[in-house]
Amino acid sequence: MAFKTDIQIAREAAKRPIQEIGAKLGISSDDLLPYGHDKAKVSQSFIDSVQDRANGKLILVTAINPTPAGEGKTTTTVGLGDGLNRIGKKAAVCIREASLGPNFGMKGGAAGGGYAQVVPMEEMNLHFTGDFHAITSAHNLLAAMIDNHIYWGNELEIDTRRVTWRRVVDMNDRALRQITASLGGVPNGFPRETGFDITVASEVMAILCLAKNLTDLQERLGAMIVAYRRDRSPVYARDIKADGAMTVLLKDAMQPNLVQTLENNPAFVHGGPFANIAHGCNSVIATTTALKLADYVVTEAGFGADLGAEKFMNIKCRKAGLAPSVVVVVATVRAMKMNGGVAKADLGTENVEAVQQGCANLGRHIENVKSFGVPVVVAINHFVTDTDAEVAAVKEYVAAQGAEAILSRHWELGSEGSADLATRVAEIADGDHANFAPLYADEMPLFEKIETIAKRVYRADEVLADQKVRNQLKDWEAQGYGDLPVCMAKTQYSFSTDPDLRGAPTGFSVPIREVRLSAGAGFVVVICGEIMTMPGLPRVPSAEAIKLNADGDVEGLF
To answer: Which residues does the annotation say bind ATP (predicted)?
Structure first.
C-alpha cells in the first residue's frame, strides 16, 4: 500500500490564519508579528503581561537511541499535542527549529511526519523566520570584532594563540572544521588557526534558548569568554563591546514563533541547539510562555534520553525552574528489532525474539528517566509492518519495568490514533506523581558531574581524561564556574561513545577529548570520543534530491 510523503500531506493541509491559532491561546492579533499568513512571532510585551499566571502541566517527549529504522520523536510530540486537544484539553506543542545542515545532509527535517506534523513544513525546514540567520550573524559579528580589536593595537592584550571564539555557519561543511585565518599579509591581520562550528552548536544559540528576556540575553552574551591573555586571564564579549550590537541582531529572533499542527492546534517552534553537541531543547521563553497559556505543554528533547532528556532535566529545568509532570519515551518495534540484531532490510519480517532482545535499550532509558523522580509512559510509535505479537512483546517488557506502554497511531490517523496515549498521559500529569530533582547538585565538582552522568546514565565503568582536561576543570572551579552543569557532547547512537555499540552496553569507558566553558550559557561542554561540532555531509547528501518542481513547489524534503 502506497502512503503519501510528509511533504505531500503538509502541502494538502487546511491551514487557518495564524491570528485564529493565536486566539486559541488568548493571544490577540495585536500581539502577533506575522510572517506571512501562517506563522508569527509573539511579542515580548505580551509575554511579559502573562507572567503572573499559573503554569500548566509540562510533558517531556524523549526516545530510545536513534536507529536507521526511525523512532518518530517529533511526530509523537505533535501527535500527543493533537491528541490532548482532541480529548478536550487545552494543549500546546513546543519543538525546536530545524537546522539547514541536517536538512541537506541526512537527518531530514524537524516538523514531525505523516498526519502528525507542524506546518508550514517547507518553510520551517528552510529559512523559517530567520532566527538561525540572526544567530549566525550575531556570532560572526563577535568573531569579526575580536580580530578587528587585535588588528587595531590589541588594547586588551589578547594572546592570539588563545582566541577560543570560532566562527559558525548553518551548514554541514567538514572542510571548515580547522582553518588558518588572516593570511595575505599585513592588511589582513595576524594569521592564526581557528575553525567553524555549525550554528546550532554556537553558544549564542544556547544563550538564546536559555535567556528569559532581552536584558538576560545581553548579560549572558557579555559573559561569554572569547579569548585569554598571556597571563591566562579571560577576555569577555563585553570587553570587546560586542554584546549590545549582538542583542540588536537577536532582538526579533528572541521572540517565539507560533505556527500550527495539521489539526490547527498551536505550536511554538523556537531555537534549535543539537542534543549531541549542545543541550538539545527548544527555548526557555517559548516553553515558559506556553505554560502560561495552555493547561498542557508537550515539548521534546533531542535524540535519545541519554542526551536530550538528561540535558533537559539537568540544564534546562535547573536553569529555568521547570519540572516535568510526566515523561513519554518513544520507541518503535522496528528499532527494538534493530537493537536486537536485525538488519534494516529484514525489519518487515516478524521477529518477536529480536524485539525482546532489543528492549534492553528501552529499559535502560526508562530506568534513567525514573531516576529523576518523574513517571514514565512508553509510546509505541506504530508502523504498518508491526505485528500484534511484536507490540505485545514491547508492552510486556515495559510492564516488567514498572511502566506502561501504549500503542499510538498518530502518524497514520492523526489525533484519532493518539487519543489513548493522550488520555493516559493527562491522567498521570493530573495525578501529580512527579517528584523531580536533577541528577547532581550544583556544588558537586565538575569532573564528578561528568562521572555521574557517564556512570549513572551511560553505565560506563570510568571516564578517561588526561591531566590537561582535569586541570582545566579545576581552573574553572577556582574562577567560580564550579557550580555550572555539564553538557555532554557524545554520539547519539549509543549509550557509549562508539556509535556502533547498540543495545544496553556495559564494560566501556568514556574518553574526554576536550572541554569548553560556555560561561554565558552557563554550562561546561564536554566533548567525548569522536563527536564533531561541525558535521560533514554523507556520501549521498539529501541536497541531491531537493529541487523545485514545475509548479514551483519544493520536492525532496523529508
So the answer is: 67-74
**Catalytic option among 91, 138, 143, 275:** 275
Is 165 one of the catalytic residues? no
The answer to whether residue 75 is catalytic is: yes
pLDDT value for 105: 87
Q: Phi and psi at residue 167, in whole multiples of 5°? A: -105, 165
Active site (annotated) includes residue 411: yes
Burial zone of 349 (CB within 10 Å; 0-12 exposed, 13-18 middle, 19+ buried): exposed
Peptide bond into 120 cis (omega under 30): yes
Grid cell at residue 263: 489539526
Binding positions are 67-74
Kind plus residue range of the DSSP H or E element containing 388? helix 388-400
Rounded CA-CA distance 73/80 in Å is 10
Task: Name the amino acid, one letter, at 364.
Answer: R
The helices-and-strands tally (H runs, E runs) of the chain is: 20, 25
Strand, coil or helix: what is 93? strand
CA distances from 130 to 134, 250, 352 (A): 6, 10, 46
CB 61 within 8 A of CB 76: yes
Asked about 229 being catalytic, the answer comes back as: no
Q: What is the pLDDT of residues 294-344, one digit of tens each?
A: 999 999 998 999 999 999 999 999 999 999 999 999 999 999 999 888 888
For 231-257, the pLDDT digits (tens) are: 999 999 999 999 999 999 999 999 999
Is 190 marked active-site?
A: no
**pTM for this model (two decimals):** 0.94
Phi and psi of 189, rounded to 5°? 100, -160
Catalytic residue among 15, 39, 41, 73: 73
**Catalytic residue status for 523:** no
CA-based nearest residue to 519, from 488, 474, 471, 480: 480
Distances (CA, A) of 283 to 251, 287, 364: 14, 6, 27
